[in-house]
Specification:
Length: about 325
């Protein structure tokens, strides 16, 4: 019976994520429209609300083309695998109904995001196009660079709360949000999330103005739609994780979902405001700024924890 309930819960979670991804694309197009002093989608239905579903029908009914010289199986399966991974990360969302008992939820999240690098690499390589290969190499280098600082920030949180379970974030922020205690860390985490999900100002994977396009240049119709859906699902997940880690993260209240929506809006706001970074500056930021910063914070938390243990022993 438990297995059946877990399966039903998982299917419902995936359906909710897909619907929210659809409306996130609509929100993005509307917000970017108003930032650029225009309306955005407003022809389909009332205020363009059914637009995402029309886009989905259009994308998935288009004819699937593929390059004759491509390695067909990896080329065909990498968007599917990418989408599957993006939905898999949602399984470690700490639901209070005990959907899955994820005592090592943070490790699971890191494993899933690390695997996402392979899908980008295989998508670029299997297309057998120079542009796609160059785009995938750059995207992989970027993702790997920022994963280091993400992992170190998570590790410092593990030292602070003494657990890998995401539920602990909720219990530890009952009285004060972690954002008030660690504002610089929150900003670095948010910047790393932008780089991790290939968003502006770090969107080299999709919008490389000096190349024709990124790793997805040879994809059209269904394959492109799956890559697109995977990206937006990971944006939503990163927003959820930010709220959970820094903004209280009480999943029992509706306020949690308003915070999540606000964080997703900030992702779009950044896209409408900031210009694209230069690639060497992106790498400099990762290795020369964020890495020393997160290492220093990690050392600070380790020292703080040891000091507290010594203090407790002395008492």
């Amino acid at each position: 019976m438990d297995v059946v309930l877990m399966l039903i819960g998982s299917v419902l979670l995936v359906i909710c994520v897909l619907v929210s991804v659809a409306f996130l694309t609509l929100l993005e197009r509307k917000v970017l429209g108003y930032i650029q002093i225009r309306k955005g989608p407003n022809k389909v239905g009332i205020m363009g609300i059914p637009q995402p579903f029309c886009d989905a029908i259009k994308l998935f009914t288009k004819e699937q083309t593929y390059p004759l010289v491509s390695n067909f199986l990896p080329y065909y399966l990498s968007p599917v695998f990418s989408f599957f991974l993006a939905l898999m990360t949602w399984m470690c969302m700490p639901m209070l109904i005990n959907l899955y008992s994820f005592n090592l939820g943070l490790l699971f999240f890191l494993c899933c995001t690390s695997l996402g690098v392979y899908t980008v690499m295989i998508a670029g390589w299997s297309s057998n196009s120079n542009y796609a290969l160059l785009g995938s190499l750059r995207a992989v280098a970027q993702t790997i660079s920022y994963e280091v600082s993400l992992a170190l920030i998570l590790l410092s949180f593990v030292f602070l709360i003494g657990n890998y379970n995401m539920m602990q974030f909720m219990f530890y922020q009952t009285y004060i949000w972690f954002l008030f205690m660690m504002l610089p860390m929150g900003l670095v985490w948010f910047s790393s999330c932008l780089a991790e999900t290939n968003r502006t100002p770090f969107d080299f994977a999709e919008g490389e103005s000096e190349l024709v396009s990124g790793f997805n240049i040879e994809y059209s119709s269904g394959g492109f739609a799956l890559i697109f859906l995977a990206e937006y699902a990971s944006i939503l997940f990163m927003s959820m994780l930010f709220v959970l880690m820094f903004l209280g993260g009480d999943m029992t209240s509706f306020v949690f979902y308003f915070k999540l929506m606000f964080m997703s809006f900030v992702f779009i706001w950044v896209r409408g405001t900031l210009p694209r970074f230069r690639y060497d500056k992106l790498m400099y930021l990762a290795w020369k700024s964020f890495l020393p910063f997160s290492l220093n914070y990690l050392m600070f938390f380790m020292g703080f924890k040891i000091f507290m243990l010594m203090f407790m022993l002395l008492i």
